[in-house]
Amino acid sequence: MGSAVDPRSPFDSPRPPASPPAPPSSLPRTPSRIAESSSTPAVRQPSFRGEAGTLFGIHIVNVLFTLGTLGLYYFWAKTRTRRFLFSQTEFAGDRFAYHGTGRELLIGTVKALLVFGVPLLALHVIRERIEVPTAVKIAVGLVSSAVGFSFVPVAIVGARRYRLSRTSWRGVRFSFHGRTWPLMKIFIRGTLLSFVTFGFYYPVFLVRRHAFLVSQSYFGTERFDFSGQGRDLMEHFVRAVLLTPFTLGLYWFWWTARKRRYLWEHTRFGEARFRSTVTGGALLRLHALNALILVGTLGLAWPWVKVRNIHFAYRYLSLLGPLDLERIQQQAQFPSATGEALAGFFDSGFDLA
Amino acid sequence: MPTDWPAAYLDGETAIRHRAIVRLMREGLEVTPAGGRTRLWPYAQVRQTQGAYAGEEVRLEHGGQMPEVLVVRDLRFLQSLHELAPEFSRRFHNPARRGRRLQLTAVAAGAVIGLSAMMYLWGIPLLAAQVALRVPVAWEEQLGKGVVDHVASPARRCRDPQLVAAIDTILGRLTAAAPRSPYTLRVYVVDMPIVNAFAAPSGSVVIFRGLLQRTDSPEQLAGVLAHELQHVLQRHSTRAIVQHASSGLLIAALTGDVTGPLAYGLEAARVLGHFRYSREAETEADTEGLKMLLAARVDPAGMIAFFEPPKDTADKHEESAADKYLSSHPSDRDRKATLTALVSRHPTQSVTLLPGENWRELRYACGAPGTSLQESPR
Ligand SMILES: [Zn+2]
User: Fold this and answer.
1) Is B83 exposed, middle or buried (0-12, 13-18, 19+ CB in 10 A)?
2) B143 and A CB contact within 8 Å
3) Nearest 5 degrees, angle CA A33-CA B71-CA A16?
4) Is the pLDDT of residue A129 over 80?
5) How far apart are CA A131 and CA B334, in angstroms?
6) Kindly report the CA angle at A195 between A194 and A197, in degrees rounded to 5?
7) Cβ-Cβ contacts under 8 Å, A56 against chain B
8) Cβ(B116)–Cβ(B255) under 8 Å?
9) What is the DSSP string of B215-248?
10) Contact map slice: A 36-95 vs B, CB within 8 A
11) B118 touches chain A (CB under 8 A)
């Protein structure tokens, strides 16, 4: 949570841009190398073409089927929604496409339950119900904590790998090449150091995690780049921790905005770079109104909130600079549906949401 | 209808978009990218992945893992496709059917709203009652033990023998007439000035000294006890847990995916909904508790008087006996009316509780030395 990359938004990090028209003087004027983009501006923003009403139609049928199947339809519902949201998002004149299926999501969830849920339950039973020496109980407790802890990085990598590989633009797929173990190391180190330093390490942890996720993401053969440093956020983070309690938590929105701007501004794609102009006040207004809408309708107005969120995200995000699309080739292979090693097993189609 | 349509062609290998012309033929689509060679896509090999919803472009794919893609903006393309190749109509979305889909969506919306309301009003309470009956008593005891140990720790319990005996007598009277319960019913008086009482899931009723001192007669205490015992016997806390969980599932089903601050907003709505269920539980504890009193031949006037809302609202600093108790037990004027009506329907002969005991002294048997009427806790 709180990362600039909202895992529920149509595209994870390759979400291209939206922002108010930038001051022309600051724009790179380099002519694009590909003929068709010579007429396109060097500031690009995605736009969302969908109507909340259409999404409501999809959503309400999803709800009906989900209730009717006691929840089993959830995975297909999710896929239908994503497919619509992606295909309504336009960037540089072309729509995104989502290729995932409900079956894959269901299998991913079952895998997660088998790999994590069943062992955790078994360990719990050993600890709570069976008479064993205290030393064994402590050992079992440590093992369950380790299993629970490792679930987070495994799920992040698996979900990102799955979602990016099921996303395309102009017929070219996105992909994620990060493995689970490096992220696990970032998590172990980050958790320990955050603890030892009373939280001061947290911004470094946050940026390292983000750097790993972004810089292992590809569009076709072209990689995304991230150059941020955790220490740049340190001062802002400390201020947020100090000010948040005195502002009834409201200052956290300014910190979130600050963090998002930083993370996007250090993200590049080829020679183009992202820019975010989101502000804390805008985030606060968005969330306050969203909460009112949702609570007032007990969640039924979710499609309007979703569309509001997407418009919001695109309004403050843009991609500046030349986009060399000619160089980009389709990646030679897709992540296979079945992995060879155990890590591969985790990494394939392992999506929970 | 024209057979040639402008389209965008993506070769599935690069991110370059080509202008193309697509021609509808009897057996398939003839695709001609600008400056490229013409190819034929037999209808049986074409998949439509987008274009079924308003605002979507028609997207057609041909080929395996890295398919070629054709994007057509004009929806009439689909119409003429259906006219030209009706035998393949199942493979492609038919825009002519959109009106009917709109109607079906409206029906679905009505059904969802009706269904959710039904589940909320009847389904969840019914489910919770059924589930609560099947939860093993051992689980509830495990759950309740922690609560009781925490709130009514042995050090804080009031052990005045006369008071304990008096409360045991009342408890015995109440439970003698009640059907056998799977729980071991216990009452603890805790030496704290709070005007409250509650029932833990394990069959333990905790009464705080503050509440005890506000009762005017053993009958009033019996009324509070009967109410709390009904929370235990009707398994209200277990029901509340099930109701809370299932209303969460219902909201999750209605909202698709919501995270972050919004989740908290919806949680608030869910908690508000929770009040409705707990009001129902209060009413049930009232009416069943009153029946318990009547069965035990305890004068119900005490209970009614105790639950009576303050008569003189102007006299605010003189709070009625049960004010604070009631503030943690959502209530309204109907409560008293319901109870009075119930009493008039079941007239019984009542027997005096604890004859020969001086209740005015007994209720101060618990508490720090020197506690007196003047220091009556607020
Ligand atoms: Zn109650």
Assistant:
1) exposed
2) no
3) 50
4) no
5) 53
6) 65
7) 109
8) no
9) -SSHHHHHHHHHHHHHHHHTTHHHHHHHHHHHHH
10) 36, 49-51, 54, 56-64, 66-67, 71, 74, 77-78, 81, 83-84, 87-88, 93-95
11) no
Verdict on whether the full-model pTM lies above 0.95:
no
Per-residue pLDDT of chain B (378 residues; tens, 9 = 90+): 678 899 999 988 888 899 999 999 888 999 999 888 899 999 999 999 998 888 889 999 998 878 899 999 988 899 889 988 888 888 899 888 888 888 888 899 899 889 888 988 898 889 988 988 888 888 888 878 888 888 888 888 888 888 888 999 999 988 887 777 788 888 999 988 888 888 888 888 999 988 888 888 888 899 889 999 998 888 888 888 888 888 887 877 777 665 555 666 677 777 777 777 788 888 888 889 888 888 888 888 888 877 765 554 444 444 455 555 655 565 556 777 778 888 888 777 777 877 777 888 888 887 754 444 433 333
> By the CB < 8 Å criterion, does A129 face chain B?
no
Q: How far is B253 from chain A (nearest CA, A)?
A: 6
Between positions 142 and 171 of A, the ones with CB within 8 A of B are: 169-171
The total number of residues written for chain A in this structure? 353
Tens-place pLDDT, residues B194-223 = 888 888 888 889 999 888 888 888 888 998
Chain position carrying tokens 């006890």: B225
Length of chain B: 378
CA distances for A267 relative to A8, A202, A224, angstroms? 19, 20, 7
**Three-state SS across A134-196?**
HHHHHHHHHHHHHHHHHHHHHHHHHHHHHHHHCEEECCEEEEECCCHHHHHHHHHHHHHHHHH
Which of A264, A261, A254 is CA-nearest to residue A277?
A261
Amino acid type, A182: P
For B119, which residue in chain A has the nearest alpha carbon?
A: A67
The residues with which B17 forms a beta bridge, in sequence order, are: B10
Residues 6+ apart with CB under 8 A from A136: A126
Strands B186-190, B204-208: parallel, antiparallel or unpaired by DSSP? parallel
> Whose CA is closest to A170, among A7, A12, A325, A5?
A325
Cα separations in angstroms, A43 against A10, A283, B288: 20, 23, 71
Cβ of residue B338 closer than 8 Å to a chain A Cβ: no
Instruction: Note whether A255 and A306 are within 8 A (CB).
Output: no
Q: Which two tokens stand for residue B186?
A: 């216990």
Residues of chain B found within 8 Å of residue A99, distances taken between Cβ atoms: 49
**Tokens matching residue A111:** 């895998």
DSSP B56-98: PPEEEEESSSS-EEEEE--THHHHHHHHH-GGGGGGS--GGGH
pLDDT of residue B331: 58
Contacts (Cβ under 8 Å, ≥6 apart) of A14: A164, A167, A169, A174, A217, A219, A224, A269
A22: which residues sit within 8 A by CB, 6+ positions away?
A43, A275, A318, A320
What kind and span of H or E run contains A25? Answer: none
